[in-house]
Specification:
This protein has 189 residues and is mostly beta strands. It has one helix spanning 2-28, and strands at 38-42, 46-58, 63-74, 80-92, 98-108, 113-124, 129-138, 143-153, 157-167, 172-183. It is globular and about 65 Å long.
Length: 189
């Protein structure tokens, strides 16, 4: 029995923690929770949550980020996170925020890839907007790419094209093909 508890204590600890959180939520009478917050906990299959808001503050990197999603699923090995109907907001310290909304996404801790799909719309704090169907962001290399149709618009321009490559470190953006640009600098006369 001692060896069983020794090997299973992390799972039991998570179960007890979730039971306490659920107990206090119910006891506090949280009417804002419309359905079951915790849908399922299955050993080896991971964790599934509904209507969540997750935030992370990393002072070492000078970065805060928030994820709101209708559904989030954590894999059993905790190496992958899947989410649906999401809003992802990134707030770098002393820089302009970026917010992305879409239908579904996943994150792999092993590769560092964040895949986002479905009616993606991104906004920045300085008035820029991006629209596409699929984006891959690699947090390790700090690169963003898409092979789908992309539209980027800002205060004085609009660019459409097929495919996108962005180096976030160098702050360099490249549209890959079939590019159309419209620049509006105001009246020429």
């Amino acid at each position: 029995m001692g060896k069983f508890l020794e090997r299973q204590w992390p799972i039991l600890g998570v179960g007890v923690l979730l039971a306490l959180v659920t107990f206090y939520l119910i006891k506090a009478g949280k009417e804002a929770v419309q359905g079951p917050l915790l849908r399922a906990i299955m050993p080896g299959e991971g964790l599934e949550l509904r209507d969540i808001r997750y935030s992370h503050d990393d002072p070492d990197k000078g970065l805060k980020w928030f994820l709101d999603a209708k559904e989030v699923r954590l894999s059993g090995d905790k190496r992958s996170i899947y989410f649906k109907d999401f809003r992802l907001r990134v707030e770098p310290k002393d820089k302009i925020f970026l917010e992305l909304r879409g239908k579904r996404g996943n994150y792999s801790r092993d590769s560092g890839d964040i895949n986002l799909w479905g009616n993606l719309e991104g906004y920045s704090g300085n008035g820029y907007k991006i629209v596409t169907e699929h984006v891959i962001i690699n947090e390790k290399s700090r690169k963003l790419s898409s092979d789908k149709s992309v539209k980027i618009s800002g205060p004085f321009f609009s660019v459409d094209g097929q495919g996108l490559s962005v180096d976030l470190k160098k702050e360099r953006l490249k549209m890959l093909s079939d590019v159309t640009a419209i620049i509006d600098t105001g009246p020429l006369i």
